[in-house]
Amino acid sequence: MRRVSAVAVTAATAGSVLATGAALAPAQALAPAAAGTAAPALAAPKAPTVTARGAFLMNAGTGRTLYAKGADTRLPTGSTTKIMTAKVVLASKGLDLDAKVTVQKAYSDYIVRNSASSARLIVGDRVTVRQLLYGLMLPSGCDAAYALADKFGTGGTRDARVKSFIGKMNATARSLGLKNTHFDSFDGGGGRGNYSTARDLTRLAVSAMKNTTFRAVVATRSTKQRTATRSGGRRTMAWTNTNPLLNSYPGTLGIKTGSGPNAKYCLVFATKRGSKTLYGTLLASSSDVNRAKDAGRLLDYGFKK
Predict the structure, then answer these.
(1) Are 145 and 85 spatial neighbours (Cβ–Cβ below 8 Å)?
(2) 79, 185, 207, 259: which one is catalytic?
(3) Which residue out of 140, 196, 207, 259 is catalytically annotated?
(4) Lowest mean pLDDT across 40-54, 130-144, 148-162, 261-275
(5) What is the DSSP annotation of 245-291?
(6) For the stretch 24-53, what's the b/e string if a residue is b when 16 or more beta carbons lie within 10 angstroms of its beta carbon?
(7) Closest CA to 169 of 53, 232, 81
(8) Helix count (H) and strand count (E) of the chain?
């Protein structure tokens, strides 16, 4: 009786309702939900469609996989290889970021011979290791990658030093448990022996971003660096980051683009929103425009999960 009288009915009809119960069902339908009743669950966000052959997205805080498409398929890496180049340099014993390196003609010849991306280093200029890292990661300079491999490899000849450096890259991949990753070049311009997966590159990025110098470099949109010329003068080098997300997706922390005839369009990225940080990789997107769109779709999806 008390339950029925609580239903919102008029005094004029209350007697007939209590007597017959005829209005009970409709009245109950209009009553508010009982305390503690769960609200309907929101629909889970729909997984996006991406053009990339390989794609992977994870929550760095929890390690949870948020998206995977061909995530363990071995694919060419293009210049995303340079993430490992930088990591090996930054892990070098007794590293001096202000140590000077003289730009050799071999580095310039390599760029011309392979039509490779360049930091436009000038032969004879003396640049610091720190500056080479900016030239490596922002304009994706293969000449900067060559200079670093030559500097941080071991051996009596340039070829021996480069071979040694690539060996360090592969040893680091093994130490990180990247079982589907192998490098045959310092810049991603190698042949079929230069490959990785979207999952492996994401894991590499998480590891590389633990280094404060690396984080500072890849977060930089553009920089001007003063280098010493062969004649003792000064030269200003201007470099702009090729990562499109730094300008288009708020919260982006950086990482690295890659491209090439075999690699197509690649991107390794990290973005933070609130307390959540997402890391991801795209390999073999169909164009630079679609690469950026793929990344945006993945991030939008990941931050809703």
Answers:
(1) yes
(2) 79
(3) 140
(4) 40-54
(5) HHHHSTTEEEEEEEEETTTEEEEEEEEEETTEEEEEEEEEESSHHHH
(6) eeebeeeeeeeeeeeeeeeeeeeebebbbb
(7) 81
(8) 12, 11
Is 285 among the residues known to form the active site?
no
Please indicate whether residue 79 is annotated as part of the active site. yes
150-174 CB burial, b ≥16 within 10 A, e <16: bbbbeeeeeeebbeebbebbbebbe
Q: Residue 105: CB partners within 8 Å, gap ≥ 6?
A: 123
Say how many CA atoms lie within 13 Å of 142 toward its Cβ: 22
For residue 8, how many other CB atoms are within 10 A of its CB?
8
Structure-token pair, residue 192: 């079929």
Give the position of tokens 């793929």.
294
Which is the catalytic residue, given 82, 87, 256, 264? 82
Q: What is the mean pLDDT of residues 280-288?
A: 96
The pLDDT value given to residue 2 = 41
Annotated active-site residue 175? The verdict is no
Please tell me the total number of residues recorded for the chain in this structure: 305
Residue identified by tokens 């005094």 is: 11
Q: Under DSSP, is residue 298 helix (H, G, I), strand (E, B) or coil? A: helix
Instruction: Enter the DSSP assignment of 191.
Output: -
Q: With beta carbons less than 8 A apart as the criterion, state whether 186 and 86 touch.
A: no
Q: For the chain, how far is it from start to end, CA to CA, in angstroms?
A: 46
For residue range 208-231, what is the model confidence (pLDDT) as tens digits? 999 999 999 999 999 999 999 999
Q: Which long-range contacts (CB under 8 A, 24 or more apart) does 43-51 make?
A: 44/305, 45/301, 45/304, 45/305, 46/301, 47/301, 48/294, 48/297, 48/298, 48/300, 48/301, 49/297, 50/282, 50/285, 50/294, 50/297, 50/298, 51/285, 51/286, 51/287, 51/290, 51/293, 51/294
Q: What's the whole-model pTM score?
A: 0.85
